[in-house]
Amino acid sequence: MPPRRQHHGPNHWPKQDQQYRVLYFTGDGPAVTQQLRGQPRRGARPQLSRAPRKPKTAHARYTSRTEWASASPLGNPGVSRTVCALSYCWGNVEAHRTTRGTLKSHLGSIPCEKLPRTLSEAIHVTRELGIPYLWIDSLCIIQEDEQDWKKEAAQMGAVYSDAHVVITAAALDTSHGGLFRDRDEASVRPVLLTASSPPAPRSKSRRYVVPSGGDWEAASYSPITNRAWPLQEDILGARILSFRADQLSWACLSMMATEVDPDGAVSERDRSSAAKRAERQSIRLRSLRGVLPGPTSHTSTQENRPASVRERDVRFQVWEKVVQQYSSRAITMQTDRIPVILGVGRRLEANLHDSFVAGIWRGAYCLRSLGWQAEAPGDLVAHYPSWSWASTTSRVSYSMLSGPGAGEATVDYQASVVHFDGPLSED
């Protein structure tokens, strides 16, 4: 996946029948592969836009998490392990899954031509990035096996937080739509202009001319953002490479960008109000990961120190925001209401020196976590107690008990949880 060459000739100028605008600020940089491989450079431009040629023979293989977890990093011990993780929507029917009946054959090989298009093209992207492993839930978890699902669901947060790149299929709500699609590349290719103006003619500025449709509004609202499971995957992933219907977008903790805005530098004054709201929402979600403690394998001495009251408050607010965001999304199996964000909870447990059951924290934040309220009538969910937000299908909020120090209130416990017989209750 080589860096995209700069195009300045007439064949790559803006089309006459398309609206363009000049961006307020710009920078430049090489291909997205440099950023994804642990060499962050501003303005990376990915080239994965055309459907790849199918190789004559292509096979995947089922492998355990233990095997890829022991793989050596990509030449840099400070980056995540050499594995990609796929975030996508299954759709109504998953055509190819690992079950007890297919496990033996999957341990040998899985012909890529038999996989849904999204899965096979994700394998192609992983190969192009030079990464040896790709984690796909439908293939890496033994389906219809309650014990294996329970074990793997408890580890899904670690899978996505340890992944070097999370590949997101954002365009469709099915696994058969694929990542790549035919398009006119000129419609999303920014044109770089260098301009000077009096009274300093020697002072030159650089501007991108991009299509007017290149807002973060479209990047933020896609079929996958309506689903519950991808929320945790998006928050915990260190790097997100998202395949949208019209273009690529990519994000890390320091920036978000698209093909039409490769530096992530579209000025506020160049955005519509809807696009501004969409971008702020995306920034809020990505910023949640910035205050989460790091995964166990990459925890520093500084992260091991006791957290202050303020730090605990900030990190507990992460939990509240995740629950509020998650509760507004669709989920197929209502019993997954806790497992779907378990990874975020596990990341917070050690730092808060606390644990939770059925989505409610046991220690100093017990009262505050009980202070949720349903924003609209919803159906009751079996398997969860009525005092848990997971017991309702309604969107919930935490406006009843909020503010600095609210979670540090002294609680006089009149009862305690003796046993909880629910999803992941033994973990």
Automatic annotation (TrEMBL):
Coiled coil: none annotated. Residues 296-305 have a biased composition (Polar residues). It comes from the Eukaryota. Residues 28-73, 290-309 are annotated as: Disordered. Residues 85-233 form the Heterokaryon incompatibility domain. InterPro entries: HET. Signal peptide: none annotated. This is Heterokaryon incompatibility domain-containing protein. It comes from Colletotrichum tanaceti.
